[in-house]
């Protein structure tokens, strides 16, 4: 059976080099996501392909790794860099069709008009199957009205928006400094973004909008009673999110997400090549596969998680 990894990260080499030059002498990238940059499988395609040879039945959907462009460069530079990243990811999909099935667009989110234009180009010209944003956009929450035009456009394209966690401004995250940010902070950021979108009525305004969260919806599956009591949010609104399985081998956590969101809202995703494993520190692909196979669910549901839901949501022809 084929498995479609809908949340696999990459830092294409030409893009990575261009990014370094744009921020040289400015923002310290090593302080933002230096641990990401040390993972050679993000940029060195030969290493990545050798790693993927261990899992010949896995096809990856490429998503750009950190940092968010709007945090580290100007709007004009973000526009340029987003095009470089998307063009390079498109080339990789064409060159390695047995490894990469499609990609998700990087957007210059510090210019929403430009972001919509790049989303259109990536989807219509490069055949990408969605776009990636972050749990806050340079400190601004996702329920801000200024982001609604992008949401409306993605509804028109009938394709999903990937939400990757990112640190809130300092005033919000003082209590989740490293190492706590890596342990629990991003689950908090994801959950906060989800609740804000639901609370703001985004699903009521755009009933057909599709968001995909990282790490199985963060804390949301365990906090239903709390957000209903504190915010009055309807459970059905929060259940509108789609969610990956990147819990690093946590079957019990997946069962919690399965119970809350339902099988049709779970998609195989690994966070590859990020994370340390016994196989050399290049992700949790094997652990994620095993954790899904150990779920106490019907085989037909397991097949949906591994492949069927991605095929439907991304409108993939395989």
Could you walk me through the main structural features you see in this protein, from its secondary elements to its overall organization?
Helix content is 47%, strand content 12%. The mean pLDDT is 91. The longest helix has 21 residues, at 75-95. Strands 4-7-8-9-10 form a five-stranded parallel β-sheet. A three-stranded parallel β-sheet has the order 1-2-3. By secondary structure, it is α/β, with parallel strands linked by helices. The chain contains 15 helices and ten strands. The protein has a single domain (3-313), classed as Metal-dependent hydrolases (TIM Barrel, Alpha-Beta Barrel), CATH 3.20.20. The radius of gyration is 18 Å and the shape is globular. It has helices at 13-23, 29-37, 45-52, 69-72, 75-95, 112-124, 148-157, 170-173, 180-199, 202-205, 224-231, 235-238, 251-261, 285-293, 299-313, and strands at residues 3-10, 58-64, 100-103, 131-134, 136-137, 140-141, 161-164, 211-213, 242-244, 266-267. A hairpin with a 2-residue loop joins strand 5 (136-137) and strand 6 (140-141).
Topology as H/E string? EHHHEHHEHEEEHEHHHEHHEHEHH
- What would CATH call the class? Alpha Beta
What structural class results from the helix and strand content? Answer: alpha/beta
**Do you know the CATH topology?**
TIM Barrel
Global morphology: globular
Label the CATH architecture: Alpha-Beta Barrel
Mean pLDDT figure: 91
Strand content bin: 5-15%
């Amino acid at each position: 059976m084929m498995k479609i990894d809908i949340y696999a990260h990459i830092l294409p080499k030409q893009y990575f080099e261009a990014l370094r030059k744009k921020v040289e002498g400015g923002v310290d990238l090593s302080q933002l996501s230096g641990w990401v940059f040390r993972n050679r499988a993000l940029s060195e395609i030969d290493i990545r392909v050798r790693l993927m040879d261990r899992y010949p039945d896995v096809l990856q959907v490429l998503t750009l790794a950190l940092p968010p462009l709007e945090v580290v460069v100007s709007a004009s530079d973000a526009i340029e860099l987003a095009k470089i990243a998307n063009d390079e990811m498109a080339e990789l999909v064409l060159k390695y069709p047995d490894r990469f099935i499609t990609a998700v667009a990087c957007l210059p989110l510090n210019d929403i008009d430009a972001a919509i234009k790049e989303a259109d180009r990536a989807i219509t010209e490069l055949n990408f199957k969605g776009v990636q944003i972050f749990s806050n956009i340079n400190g601004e929450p996702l329920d801000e009205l200024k982001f609604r035009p992008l949401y409306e456009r993605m509804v028109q394209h009938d394709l999903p928006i990937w939400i990757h966690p990112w640190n809130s401004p300092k005033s919000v995250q003082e209590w989740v400094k490293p190492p706590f940010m890596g342990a629990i902070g991003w689950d908090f950021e994801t959950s906060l973004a989800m609740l804000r979108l639901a609370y703001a009525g985004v699903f009521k305004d755009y009933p057909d909008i599709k968001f995909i969260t990282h790490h199985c919806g963060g804390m949301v599956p365990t906090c239903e009673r709390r957000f209903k009591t504190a915010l009055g949010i309807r459970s059905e609104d929060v259940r509108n999110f789609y969610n990956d399985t990147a819990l690093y081998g946590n079957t019990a956590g997946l069962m919690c997400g399965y119970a809350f969101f339902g099988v049709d809202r779970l998609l195989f995703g690994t966070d590859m090549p990020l994370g340390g494993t016994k196989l050399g520190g290049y992700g949790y692909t094997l652990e994620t596969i095993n954790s899904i196979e150990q779920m106490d669910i019907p085989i037909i549901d397991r097949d949906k998680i591994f492949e069927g839901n991605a095929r439907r949501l991304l409108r993939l022809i395989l």
